[in-house]
């Protein structure tokens, strides 16, 4: 449970730092470039970097929560 809470705290802090501009656009753009190249999609334009980073952070939170929820539901069924 502590790991799930820590994950959410880190992801929300990352989202706030990206949205507020504490993290430079160049650093976010580089990270998004690596991520987009790994997935095989085109990289965002410089004006879209912050919004796309927030979308990726939100998507990661939703996917992780979905996996934890499915794990809990499967564990309850198998008991």
Give a short overview:
The chain is mostly helical and 79 residues long. The chain is 81% helix and 0% strand.
Task: Describe it.
- It is a single chain.
- With 79 residues, the protein is mainly alpha-helical.
- It has one domain.
- 81% of the residues lie in helices and 0% in strands.
- It is built from three helices and no strands.
- It has helices spanning 2-20, 25-39, 49-78.
- α1 (2-20) packs antiparallel against α3 (49-78) and α2 (25-39) crosses α3 (49-78).
- The mean pLDDT is 92.
Key traits:
79 residues
Number of helices: 3
Structural class comes to mainly alpha
Unreliable stretches (pLDDT < 50, length at least 5) are: none
Order of helices and strands: HHH
- Total beta strand runs: 0
Main sheet makeup:
none
Number of domains: 1
Residues in helices, as a percent range: over 70%
Radius of gyration: 15 Å
Termini Cα gap: 19 Å
Globally, the shape reads: elongated
Mean pLDDT: 92
Strand content: under 5%
Structural topology:
Layout: H1 2-20, H2 25-39, H3 49-78
Helix pairs in contact: 1-3, 2-3
